[in-house]
């Protein structure tokens, strides 16, 4: 085995050692061997299960395609290591963070498995959020947006709108965002659900008006239209359940962290 291959195995081992998967991989028969590095059959089984859950059918063709993808990934990893990319200054830090994130995810999965989030918890959090928003006199804004790759394109679109072109037609023709299929419509949003650069403009627009200038958000430029404004309307529990579940999960995470902090010896 070459030094490169040994390094790859050490990296994998450093990530998996705490979980016990490293020894399990070493003991099982490989699905393939790429330049002396084994690809565990377990990885193919895991990927098959993931694809079946997404509606795929477990067939020899699917299994072969998944195996070829794993082989391709291993070849790319080996080439990356061969070029010395693994020895760049930030590689160790990145692997350290990856290992942390992986183990934290495992910890939270175990916590939730031991004490699943209940329907009662979700409904209580939903009611709490409803009360907070109802007391805040929150406003919702119905938006449409045209997202462009640069400022020149954004200003060209604004010129077309001033010349009488419809916002919907320009969105469908020019926007690079998935909302183009709906004429740029994003639905009803609270200001905190928008990026600050957009919300700061939207709250000062009147219904039917368009932003006076393109708004830069990251690498993209937005032309925004306010379609309407209304007092906050409480979504149904069913429509909110996904967001509520995320909130309860975060509460559980914070509760566990507080428990660990209370018993830890930390020197700052």
What does this protein look like?
With 268 residues, this protein is of the alpha+beta class. It has two domains: 3-106, no CATH class; 139-231, Chitinase A, domain 3, CATH 3.10.50.40. The protein is built from ten helices and six strands; from the N terminus they run ααββααααβααβαββα. The protein has helices spanning 3-16, 21-27, 41-53, 60-82, 91-114, 119-134, 151-162, 167-174, 196-202, 237-263, and strands spanning 30-34, 37-40, 139-148, 185-189, 215-217, 220-231. A four-stranded antiparallel sheet has the order 4-3-6-5. It has a two-stranded antiparallel ribbon with strand order 1-2. It starts with a helix and ends in a 5-residue tail after the last helix.
Estimated helix fraction:
55-70%
Strand content: 5-15%
Sheet of most strands? 4 strands, antiparallel
Number of strands: 6
Shape: extended
Order of secondary-structure elements: HHEEHHHHEHHEHEEH
Layout of helices and strands:
Blueprint: H1 3-16, H2 21-27, E1 30-34, E2 37-40, H3 41-53, H4 60-82, H5 91-114, H6 119-134, E3 139-148, H7 151-162, H8 167-174, E4 185-189, H9 196-202, E5 215-217, E6 220-231, H10 237-263
Antiparallel strand pairs: 1-2, 3-4, 3-6, 5-6
Helix pairs in contact: 1-5, 3-4, 6-10
């Amino acid at each position: 085995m070459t030094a490169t291959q040994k390094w790859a195995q050490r990296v994998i081992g450093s990530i998996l050692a705490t979980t016990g998967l490293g020894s399990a991989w070493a003991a099982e028969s490989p699905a393939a061997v790429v330049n002396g590095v084994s690809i565990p059959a377990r990885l193919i089984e895991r990927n098959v299960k993931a694809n079946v859950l997404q509606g795929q059918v477990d067939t020899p063709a699917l299994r072969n395609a998944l195996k070829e993808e794993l082989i391709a990934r291993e070849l790319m990893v080996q080439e990356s290591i061969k070029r010395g990319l693994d020895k760049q200054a930030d590689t160790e830090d990145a692997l350290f963070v990856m290992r942390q994130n992986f183990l934290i995810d495992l910890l939270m999965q175990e916590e939730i498995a031991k004490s699943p989030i209940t329907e009662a918890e979700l409904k209580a959090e939903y009611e709490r959020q409803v009360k907070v928003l109802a007391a805040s006199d929150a406003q919702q804004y119905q938006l449409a947006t045209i997202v462009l790759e640069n400022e020149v394109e954004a200003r060209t679109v604004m010129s077309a709108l001033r010349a009488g072109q419809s916002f919907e037609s320009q969105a469908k023709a020019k926007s690079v965002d998935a909302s183009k299929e709906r004429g740029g419509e994003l639905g009803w949003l609270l200001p905190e659900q928008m990026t600050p650069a957009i919300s700061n403009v939207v709250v000062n627009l009147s219904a039917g008006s368009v932003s006076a200038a393109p708004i830069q958000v990251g690498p993209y430029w937005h032309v925004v239209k306010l379609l309407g404004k209304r007092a906050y309307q409480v979504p149904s529990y069913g429509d909110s359940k996904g967001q509520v579940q995320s909130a309860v999960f975060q509460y559980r995470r914070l509760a566990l962290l507080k428990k660990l902090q209370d018993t830890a010896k930390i020197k700052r």
